Protein 1
Amino acid sequence: MNITSDGAGGFTIELKAVRTVSIKHIAQLRSYNIVQHEGLVVHAIEFLNGGTVSLKYENSGALVHFQLKHVSLLIKEGQDLVLSQQETGGVAQTS
């Protein structure tokens, strides 16, 4: 796993494989939509605080796009992702 900063508060995280993506507190969600678009399965998630997540998977299950804004991310064992509503100062963490 490699994490780099763009210097403007954004981060790029390179993961070799993603095993799971989960939501820590389902009650923090405002909306969760799943659609198929151009051969991809697209998950659009919005948290109560306005934070957003976009996940795009190929039909094979391979994750090809992952973007989040104002959402905390916990990375467990380098391949299990846990999303939660960002509290003040939250960023990516690993365990």
Note: The chain has one domain: 17-94.
Protein 2
Amino acid sequence: MDPRLCARRAPSRNSCGRRCCSRCPFGGFIQPHRLASLVQEYRAQHQRGLSVAEDMLEALGGDNSLPGAALLRRAAYQQLMIDWLAEVLTRIPQDGPWTQF
């Protein structure tokens, strides 16, 4: 499928992450404002996921169970993605002509 046609579709909740990971390497085919919008939505999804994980960790208190460890990993992954996507946003050209980058 032509990456330019795929990029014009609005991301669905289930495919947003897959599309972000597939579009970032092909960012030169996508207008910067479209790529930035996709990355911002994907980052917002991870921020919501982190908020849920933090709320669950707070409710668990000093839990030392294996499910609690998995929840810690979930929170760490969400934070990792939030930070990485913030870095991606800084690399998307904000002005000037649209060119492959």
Note: DSSP finds four helices and no strands in the chain.
Protein 3
Amino acid sequence: MKFCTNAVTIERLGKVVQYQEFMLQRIIMQEIFTVIAYPVVWLICTYLFKIESGLAKLLISLTAAILVYVLIGIWQSKKGEEKDDSN
């Protein structure tokens, strides 16, 4: 009986580790896209829109980066809810 309990515990731990790895991948993806969004929007403001004000570029770039972060979070949340509903 003790062996069976240990096997179940090990199986549960395996599932927990898989879930943690999955969540870490999602967080890393969200952070990478946010980090990429900031300089890309800065360059777009500089060369495409010809904005010369550093403060304006800063505010627009930060807003875009935060927006990317929030939108990816919402998308991942909905994706997680759909996955939970299917189980």
Note: The first helix runs from residue 2 to 48.
